[in-house]
Design a protein that fits this description.
Two copies of one chain form a homodimer. By secondary structure, chain A is α/β, with parallel strands linked by helices. Chain A folds into three domains: 3-76, Winged helix-like DNA-binding domain superfamily/Winged helix DNA-binding domain (Arc Repressor Mutant, subunit A, Orthogonal Bundle); 82-199 and 379-402, Nucleotidyltransferase, domain 5, CATH 3.30.420; 205-372, Nucleotidyltransferase, domain 5, CATH 3.30.420. Helix content of chain A is 42%, strand content 18%. The first copy, chain A, has helices at 3-10, 13-24, 30-37, 41-53, 118-136, 175-183, 192-202, 260-264, 266-275, 287-302, 306-330, 342-360, 379-393; strands spanning 57-59, 74-76, 82-88, 92-99, 104-111, 143-150, 154-155, 160-161, 187-191, 209-214, 218-224, 227-228, 334-338, 369-372, 401-402. Chains A and B meet through strand 11 and helix 11 of A and strand 11 and helix 11 of B.
Chain lengths: 403, 403
């Protein structure tokens, strides 16, 4: 059914090594591949011919600078294989199609159904995945699989979403097998922060950073020496309970008073804005209503409302305390923020965060930076799709896929 | 001058691989080595002969179970090579001698000079290192080097102790080159928490844990997949500022109010005990006086004094909050506590910590455990010596040694 993945599953280790080298450094010549892989010239020649025949790589045009040299740059063939990436944020559902060259072909965002059970979400994902593939006009057989990123905690061994505080109706959901049944595709499940850090790593040259995820919840992941840490149980990044302000107001919610989540997640910001009588209090069990309430708060701030601006500035200062806890502990020179709500917070956060975090650092760092991700709100979905490509196309495939 | 290290520096990569295998799994036969290394039988035979001639390994006696089999177990030769390990805690200076088989031959603890400058500490270390080697009756030429663990922050690139809050008289100290000049030995500098986690990893079978260091300061390190994380600037583990109790009393000290350091370091405990009128307030610029004051507090608690016990129990509950922040973030199934003051805190901490941390965990973990290290108060010194052995005896030697 899935020609691409069958091809790759039958492939030998050396072929995976060569394809991985080309994916990570587009434009390598056969001579480069020989040097970088340590494989024999004839082996490289055979493997690249097979990969070209399978439409997984293609020959590109040598640049002007290379004129006179016989080496032909090889690149991943964007139309050769694809992965679907899905991100279930409690407010927004993102589905996208990523090609083997790392380009997002198409994506759609939907409101995450609030009143429905997980089975309806599964069906919604399956239907929209089918549409996305059909409308993109690509061969379904060339889709390697579907990666889905969700809030934790997860049991990746069994593919089960355990009991995420951010998805109160999801308890022990066998999401991996349910989605496999609904789509017929190999399915890879992972945590939102891990998928996001994977996408960030693939889209930046930096091998060491803390990734802070801002969506309906807040989370973090660590990239060290070019590796995404995932934690012993694949549940890295639960940072919402970190105390950041001992004097914080009582939000009357389930989260920890004075904690990092209370400082910055949309639900907490909406409650704070309502307490300041800026907006009416939304139904806090409805993430779409919370999202709308936050939009009203952001609009007020954008129009220069002093109280709205003060709420966001206070949020930034509290987030800085939490980020400093993580940077002091794990020792990274760089923090990257991203996720579904980042684009709306960045205007208030970026002018404040870097200096505010730096003031809290035990080890003084001139080079310390805080930046926003270059990947957009779809970062977790993109990362989930990258993880699928990695699973099938890298030499050390993990055992996390049901197929 | 250092025959052992010269031998090893001249050694080829394969020899290092074989020696490393034997060090990590004592008792391997030549056939085991062949299997585990992938090297040819004749190569193994040549290398093991060279290592035996150099007195770095020796043949051991086959166990009864192996009778009839011709395979001879090979083990590191304890008398073949050594490393000196030093730990500068602000209150206690530890110097020990570790052999290549991982045994501590001898150790001594001295009060860290309080009123002197770092140069006097360097001299003290050099003199005592010389004595330790002489009294152990070992050949100085077989000492590979000296590893020294100190509180951070450090610049390992230049071997400089920057400005550790715990060593207020140490500013920009070129400790690595100073000690090299004073001893003539190759010197490796590292952080106390990194050295401690290295020793813990070598002495336990567990590849994933958080190590919490308790000395004059508090720190942490992470071991994941059998690797000690050290942070991008080798300064992992600054956790003293993590807020653990928003209602905490004002200690009138330089540390953060309500922070993890204020909850558990000897200086903070002594101030708390003095505020409760249990003991007189010691001179808090004198770590030896602080140490004595804490001893008085621990004695009171051991004799059942209710207020002294309450201070230590409160400390344990606050430490649990801090540990939970780290476990929630980095996702480890196991926490190990150790360091110079651990043996005196363990009685009050161990009955409380595991349950108190577990209650704070976002991901519920039946298997979650909190334990004390099996290595004693000398753990950082032992780890520093292990890092020296690793530097000279493992295939992937780091570039952190000045020699």
């Amino acid at each position: 059914m899935f020609r691409g993945s069958n091809l790759l599953r039958l492939a030998d280790y050396n072929q995976a090594v060569v394809l991985d080298l080309i994916r990570r450094e587009p434009g390598l010549s056969r001579a480069d591949l020989q040097r970088n892989s340590g494989l024999a010239s004839q082996t490289i020649s055979n493997i690249t011919r097979r990969l070209i025949d399978a439409e997984l790589i293609r020959e590109s045009t040598p640049s002007d600078a290379a004129r006179g040299r016989p080496s032909i740059p090889l690149v991943a063939n964007g139309s050769g294989a694809f992965a679907v990436g899905v991100h279930v944020d409690p407010a927004r559902l993102t589905i996208l199609l990523l090609d083997i060259a790392g380009e997002v072909l198409d994506q759609r965002q939907l409101p995450t159904p609030q009143a429905t059970n997980p089975a309806e979400v599964t069906t919604l994902i399956a239907v929209n995945t089918g549409r996305l593939i059909r409308e993109a006009g690509i061969d379904r057989e060339r889709v390697l699989g579907l990666g889905i990123a969700v809030p934790g905690p997860l049991d990746l061994r069994t593919g089960v979403v355990l009991d995420p505080p951010q998805l109160p109706r999801w308890r022990q959901v066998r999401l991996r097998s349910d989605l496999h049944d609904a789509t017929g595709m190999p399915v890879l499940l992972d945590k939102d922060v891990t998928a996001s850090a994977t996408a960030e790593l693939r889209n930046s040259a930096d091998p060491d950073f803390l990734f802070v995820y801002l969506g309906s919840g807040v989370g973090a992941s660590v990239v060290t020496n070019g590796q995404v840490l995932r934690g012993a149980s694949n549940n890295i990044g639960e940072i919402g309970d970190i105390l950041v302000d001992p004097t914080a107001e009582d939000l009357g919610w389930s989260g920890r008073r004075g904690g990092l989540a209370a400082a910055c997640v949309p639900e907490a910001l909406a409650i704070q804005a309502a307490q300041a009588a800026l907006i009416p209090l939304p139904d806090v069990t409805d993430y779409l209503a919370i999202d709308d309430a936050c939009s009203a708060l952001f609009d007020l701030a954008a129009r220069g409302d002093a109280e709205a601006c003060a709420i966001l500035e206070r949020s930034a200062r509290r987030v800085a305390v939490g980020i400093a806890v993580l940077v002091n502990f794990i020792d990274v020179p760089r923090v990257v923020l991203g996720g579904p709500t980042w684009s709306r917070l960045s205007g208030a956060f970026l002018p404040i965060l870097q200096d505010a975090v730096r003031r809290e650092l035990v080890v003084s760092r001139d080079e310390f930076t805080v930046v926003g991700s270059t990947v957009g709100a779809e970062i977790a979905a993109q990362g989930a799709a990258e993880l699928v490509l990695d699973h099938f196309l890298t030499p050390s495939a993990s055992a996390l896929v049901l197929d």
